[in-house]
């Protein structure tokens, strides 16, 4: 690594000479609370590893075979877009789209790069050797498309960086570069890092800081342009890897330029955030992913207005969350607050908000963000997977009475709505949610551990996993043995080359009424702290005791929780198969069978046993109070989560 760091120092100095405007005045940056570990430091164990293996044998590992024309489109190489490029037939119905056809030109870059990002990460974390060989070939092929000037993207020379309307310039790069970054962090392949630095240099040279308009796109829909704001993901991570401040300066410029230009996706523009009358209105995935550029700009600049805006934005997001953590995104937020029956959430939005909360925790140490990650992943995300087949719901509601295309069977203006169903692909709408469903678990695992400057290892998000890192120059490995969140018992097995002194911090969930352990510990800002010398083979056993919680959602309806899990009453459904992509990969719809809905009873003696909550609820048909058995949302298809 010393050779790489020396090269990076030279590159940093060279960049400062080439792009002097970027380093004129260094902002007073906010100190970041935690440091992110390199990708691959945290690997899955237990049920999460089993699920990832099933995904790789299912839709995550086979999407390129299910929609080969989309995944294999040479859009980054021989098929780069030019002025005579035609609108592409993606195989979707184009129903309910608010955008023009221009987006369909760049759309394959998102589909294939997000899929590759998830595929790369799953393959490496699972040590799946056949898949890793496939990944290596992909890396070789994509690096071969880089031009001499460093350009790595989807446009021919006559178009690149010369837009006045909808385009995918920055977005296509973001989705591609995230996968390349993961590969570099895991393999330490200097060739990949050099290619990434050259590619980002090319962006900064052609969209010079304070002297260009990367987010000018006219007055029409600008979905691809708005997605491109997440190029800050690349800049932030490159800064963490290289220490070069140029990347953070440029990230601030991008957010400022986005805020000062017209955008159809305007929820995250500074003037709208600071307007107390403004309500979220835009496409959910944009709104939740744009939390990350706002976070990066806030911490990179230290600007008081941005600090204020960040708090406001997070408060608005909380009003958009259902009981399971599902953020409104069906597909537009449209000024609404979350409702268990009437607002759905998109799988893309679930992933983007999970990733944004991870960044918020890393930068600020926001305890609630770590808790929110668990709520979203263990409930909304798991509850949008088909528990019996390799497929996911594009859109889902907490109270899911029917999954046959429309939202709970409503007659909508758009008669061709098909998003409320389970599919391994969802090609009739857009192949975006399936790729993101392949990304969410590797990104979730990245949130499980962080480091702190005082030689602390921080278990921020609880899950079965194994951490391998270095402390004080020696290797440390920690296995987190648990079936969490399906039980709350943990054993942390700590291995080191020799006895080592450090702080182990484990987040104490807010729902934990008691901590059981034989170890001596302290509580510090919601974390259980073990500060001692650990022998070479140490063991720490912890149990978090919980009780049934009856909580209110944003619509003041009640729902039931135990530990990290939200529970629901399941409904039997009649399954109907739709399109068949390949054997074992079909669209599936579900119609209710003997559905009974319930109302809440104020005097309730809810109790938990053997993974279920037993509760008294009023049958809305008979008017009688019945004893009802609730199960985790993750194990349901049709269900009722909230009760009036």
Task: Please name the defining characteristics of this protein.
644 residues; Maltose phosphorylase, domain 3; 6-stranded mixed β-sheet
Relative strand content:
15-25%
User: Mean pLDDT score, rounded?
Assistant: 94
Q: Specify the number of helices.
A: 18
Helix content: 25-40%
Largest sheet: 8 strands, antiparallel
* Apparent shape: globular
What is the number of beta strands?
A: 26
Which spans of ≥5 residues are poorly predicted at pLDDT below 50?
Answer: 1-5, 7-24
Structural class: alpha+beta
Distance between the termini: 59 Å
User: From the alpha-carbon coordinates, what is the Rg to the nearest angstrom?
Assistant: 24 Å
What can be said about this structure in brief?
With 644 residues, this protein is of the alpha+beta class. It contains 18 helices and 26 strands.
Could you walk me through the main structural features you see in this protein, from its secondary elements to its overall organization?
The protein is α+β, with helices and mostly antiparallel strands. Among the domains are: 1-8 and 44-82 and 105-262, no CATH class; 450-484 and 489-545, Maltose phosphorylase, domain 3 (Sandwich); 549-640, no CATH class. It is 36% helix and 21% strand. The chain is built from 18 helices and 26 strands. The strands form six sheets. Strands 17, 18, 19, 22, 23, 24, 25 and 26 form an eight-stranded antiparallel β-sheet that branches. The protein has a six-stranded mixed β-sheet with strand order 1-7-8-12-15-14, with no helix packed on it. Helix 2 (46-57) packs across helix 5 and helix 16 runs antiparallel to helix 17 (367-381). The chain is globular, with a radius of gyration of 24 Å. The termini are far apart. Mean pLDDT is 94; it is low at 1-5 and 7-24.
